Amino acid sequence: MSPSEFQQVYEGRATGGEHPWSGTPAAPAGPAGPAGPGGPAGPEQRWAGLAAAPEPRRAARPAEPHRTGRRGVLIGVAAVVVLAVVGVVAFLAGKGKPSTANNAGNVAAASPSVTSPARSPSVSSSPSVSSSPTQLPGAAAMATLGSYLSQSAAVRPSVQDAINGVQACSESAASAESVLQQAITTRQNILQNLQTLSVTGLPNGPQLVSAFTTAMQNSLNADNDFHAWLADLVSSGNACGSNPNQDSNYVAAGNADTASTTSKAAFVNLWNPMAPEYGQQTYTDTGF
Fold first, then answer.
1. What does the alpha-carbon distance between residue 65 and residue 21 come to, in Å, rounded to a whole number?
2. Beta carbons of 234 and 173 less than 8 angstroms apart
3. Does 70 reside within a domain?
4. Of the residues 19, 56, 181, 258, which has the fewest C-beta atoms closer than 10 A?
5. How far is Cα of residue 242 from the mean position of the Cα atoms in its chain?
6. Per-residue b/e over 2-11, b at no fewer than 16 CB within 10 Å?
7. Is residue 123 part of a domain?
8. For the chain, how many structural domains are there in total?
9. How do residues 74-126 score in pLDDT, each as one tens digit?
10. pLDDT of residue 5
11. DSSP secondary structure string for all residues of 46-82
12. CA 44 to chain centre
């Protein structure tokens, strides 16, 4: 019998139900006869005897083999799954947490050691300190040239205003003539001082003095010519309104002024690159 059939038979006996038997079938019923004392019993008596006979005690039901094996397999699978999950969790925890050695190395690389003394900068790595303008070679000569430029720049606007005022009849020729004389005196003094200026140690010193001298001389020539034009107006009694181009002195003044602008441009090309280093002002060709 299979385990399931055995269980059905066992449960049926416990509840008093019908029990299928696979034993030898009963003999066919014959005519009932009286049972003698030693005679064979009839079919009814035999069945009655079987029914009345006590049922032998059965042993405990053995465990079903297939259920026991399946339970063992399930327990084994569950254990493997639990171990696998524990292993994965431990692996991920180990990956997420850096080791002590690596962490210590990262901390040491990210922050300087507290106990290590601070390094003092070496002399060779410190930036070089630029010399002050007064310590540069030729600084005194540059300062003197700067003062001459400032003087010439101070008189230039007044000269131009005086000439424009005479042409517009807003200023008399005599007043403008005195303004031009002041400019002439200033530039004459500059030219005289340039002859004795020492430029020893000044880079491009001789070229600077030569270019500046040419510019001042051409500017002085223009001032003298304009002054002569104004003197002609005063002597002729023409205060304003006349055509200045009819006066040769005015024409000469214009030519000298053009030459002065050209020579001043040559000078500032030398001066402007050097001036900031010496703390001096830069200029344009019409600024002084």
1. 24
2. yes
3. no
4. 56
5. 69
6. eeeeeeeeee
7. no
8. 1
9. 676 666 555 665 564 455 555 544 444 444 444 344 444 434 444 444 333 33
10. 64
11. HHHHHHHSPPPPPPPPPPPHHHHHHHHHHHHHHHHHH
12. 112
pLDDT value at 257 more than 50? yes
Tell me the two tokens of residue 271: 């001066």
CB atoms within 10 A of CB 202: 22
Integer Cα distance of 269 and 282 in angstroms:
10
Q: What angle do CA 193, 196, 199 make, to 5 degrees?
A: 110
Retrieve residue 269's tokens. Answer: 């090309």
Evaluate if pTM is beyond 0.90.
Answer: no
In a domain, residue 258? The reply is yes
Phi and psi at residue 72, to the nearest 5°? -65, -40
**What Cα–Cα distance (Å) separates residue 189 from each residue in 37, 152, 217?**
182, 10, 11
Say if CB 147 and CB 190 are below 8 A apart. Answer: no
Range of the domain at 265: 144-278
Measured CA to CA, the distance from residue 2 to residue 61 in angstroms comes to: 13
| Conformational region of residue 23, where left means phi above 0, alpha means psi within -120 to 50, and beta covers everything else | beta
Q: Which residues does 50 contact at the CB level (< 8 Å), separation at least 6?
A: none
Q: Are 45 and 27 in contact (CB under 8 A)?
A: no
Cβ–Cβ under 8 Å, residues 152 and 186: yes
Is 267 a domain residue?
yes
